Amino acid sequence: MDSVNLQLAASLVSSSYVSQAAAALAARRRLVKALLSNRRLPQTGWDEATIEMLLQDAALMDSNTFPGQVGLGEREGRVACPLVAAMHRRLAHGIGRSGDIAAEQPKAAGSSMLAKLAAHLAGDALSVAGLAGMALPLLLPSATGMALTLALLAAAAAPAAVRANGGSSSQLSTALDGR
Fold this sequence. Notes:
- The structure is a single chain.
- By secondary structure, the chain is mainly α.
- Helices cover 55% and strands 0% of the residues.
- It is built from eight helices and no strands.
- The chain has helices spanning 3-10, 15-38, 48-60, 82-87, 109-128, 144-157, 160-164, 169-177.
- The longest helix is centred in the first third of the chain and has 24 residues, at 15-38.
- The mean pLDDT is 87.
């Protein structure tokens, strides 16, 4: 709710209750603002409601959720089943463009924002893990089976000496970079 709607809500319920609610909403908005401006993992984890608010706001930025809008393009984010739409937080548009998965999707500002934010957060996580100085990682959508297959193939490609010695992640990374 914005300030105008909060004022209107105060005409329906006690203004002191609306003031409390406004303070809670403002606290959540500050968390989102800090995440978008800092592009770093928060020091303290978020509650589910704040995460859901961010995801809902992002989904509402995609053109397939615009009121009164019906997309007719081949890549429109259409979902026939409301249960599936809810399960995916109405993020149906996808990311990237033909030939460039990191490009912004013109009709999916929210999905594109989340993809870029996720890359920044993954980069921050890698930095916290001791892999500082890396370029921004490219995150690719991958189901669990594919992710496990890729990880196992990368580990199998590492030199046997690194695997046999229970090599550290930095040794494995160095070995894979040298392929």
